[in-house]
TrEMBL record:
Family membership noted in the UniProt record: Belongs to the binding-protein-dependent transport system permease family.
Record organism: Paenarthrobacter aurescens
Listed Low complexity bias regions: 8-24
One GO term of the biological process aspect: transmembrane transport
Region (Disordered): 1-28
Protein name: ABC transporter permease
Domain of life: Bacteria
One Pfam family here: BPD_transp_1
Residues annotated as domain ABC transmembrane type-1: 91-304
InterPro entries: ABC_transporter_permease, MetI-like, MetI-like_sf
């Protein structure tokens, strides 16, 4: 008995090669080639990511200096890091910068988002104005402008001089240089602010109406309704800001002229990594530093994911 199978509508009729293998029609081959062509940028991007990734892992165990063949030295680079006072200083600067600037930046971003969410006229204009510093905050031009504003004869000290106050050397004094960069980072709160604003606009208004009928104050509504419902947005912004702060480079490089000064007060971890790799040509040591930074970011990200179980709430 012959069994007939139904051919799907629009499908090409099946055919077989002389060897029994299914034969692919030329039109289908052209579609496959087009698909692979569109995927080609992704494959190239993966090559440019994966190859340096494993190359740096190998170089971390060598004393490669860009001019001679790398020599395998085992864990010597990692052991040397714990005896390097400048590396310890760079970690100290980076941790202070991250743990001070990230909470302040998120708080300012959430505060501005709450104000903009109150139905202001021309919301798109305000949103663009506040978001603009985020686009320019990490650029060399803005850091140079920031250096001019906080220079000894800059706008800030000129303003303080009106009131007879002698302003400090915000950039060249080790006591104030890192604080100046923290203010610069807080100033670029526009990116998390836009995400907060999008989250706030998704909170159903009926919750606030019910809370108002029950006599809940604005602070109680913010604490019991707004914060829990936007906690996933807070968590997302926290992770992104944390990773970005650990990778800070441009601000410290431009503000200090690439030295991390004064007195290593702005020696960020990535800036010191750059100095070891491209100034002192210790690529093996720099690669080991890169992997240490990767582990630090991974540990803090994992801690935040674990802690998120206690304060991040999802609808389901």
């Amino acid at each position: 008995m012959t069994v007939l199978t139904k051919q799907p509508r629009g499908a090409a009729p099946a055919s077989a090669s002389p060897g029994g293998a299914p034969r692919i029609r030329p039109s289908r081959r052209r579609k496959q080639r087009s698909g692979y062509l569109f995927l080609l940028p992704w494959f190239l991007g993966m090559l440019f990511t994966v190859i340096p990734f494993f190359a740096s892992l190998y170089l971390a165990f060598t004393d490669y200096n860009l001019f001679t063949e790398p020599n395998f030295v085992g864990l010597a680079n990692f052991q040397a890091m714990f005896e390097d006072p400048r590396l310890i200083q760079s970690l100290k600067v980076t941790f202070i910068y991250t743990f001070v600037s990230v909470p302040i930046s998120l708080a300012v971003a959430l505060l501005v988002a709450l104000v903009l969410n109150r139905g202001l006229q021309g919301l798109s204009i305000y949103r663009s104005v506040y978001y603009l510093p985020s686009l320019l905050g990490g650029s060399v031009a803005i850091v140079m402008l920031w250096r001019y504003i906080f220079g000894n004869d800059g706008i800030v000290n000129g303003f303080l001089g009106i009131f007879g106050i002698q302003g400090p050397a915000w950039v060249t004094d080790p006591q104030f240089s890192l604080s100046t960069l923290i203010v610069l980072n807080v100033w670029t709160f526009g990116s998390p602010m836009v995400i907060f604003l999008a989250g706030l606009r998704q909170v159903p208004g009926m919750y606030y109406e019910a809370a108002s009928i029950d006599g809940a104050s604005k602070w109680r509504q913010f604490r019991s309704i707004t914060l829990p419902l936007i906690s996933p947005i807070i968590f997302f912004n926290l992770i992104m800001q944390l990773i970005g702060s650990f990778q800070t480079f441009t601000q410290g490089y431009v503000m200090s002229g690439g030295t991390g000064g004064p007195a290593d007060s702005t020696l960020f971890y990535n800036l010191y990594l750059y100095q070891k790799g491209f100034t002192e040509f210790e690529m093996g040591y720099a690669s080991a530093m890169a992997w240490l930074l990767l582990m630090i970011i991974a540990i803090f990200t994992a801690i935040n994911f674990i802690a998120s179980k206690f304060w991040v709430f999802y609808d389901n």
